[in-house]
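Please, structure for the following, as tokens.
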Amino acid sequence: MAAIAGAHGVRGEVRLKLFGEGADALRAFSVFDAGARKLTLKSVRPANQGAVAIFAEITDRAAAEALRGTVLTVPRSALPPLGPGEYYHHDLIGLACTSTAGEALGTVVAVENFGAGDILEIERPPEPGKKPARFMVPMIPQAVPEWSDAGVLIDAAFVE
């Protein structure tokens, strides 16, 4: 859902890097998993390039700074159901990719969005003595005609 980017002020507010649809989406949840602990959301507001939040358990700047980099998640069961053609990014990461020509391509290692839509980053298996190569594919029906828990099918015309 988000990651704590650092402290905001001296009273324990935190700056958040958002992974979802904005600060309003966080209001649907009252408790977040933050590593081994739980954080109770008191308030959240949009801010420059993210959001600012107050959690009941974070009461000062030092506590807020100590959580820098902490990823905030919710259980899968707390997320709304998906409609046709929808997906959660974390469901795609780690899936095996195959081309429409039958070639094993590698695995989805990230789902990016630079403003024009989601892009899958796929890492090919490493060749001996080399680093694994990566390539990106837009998450559009022409490039990715199918995906499921079993894997991602990528049109061979989009394979680098």
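The first strand starts at residue 2 and ends at 8. The helical segments are 23-26, 61-66, 89-92.
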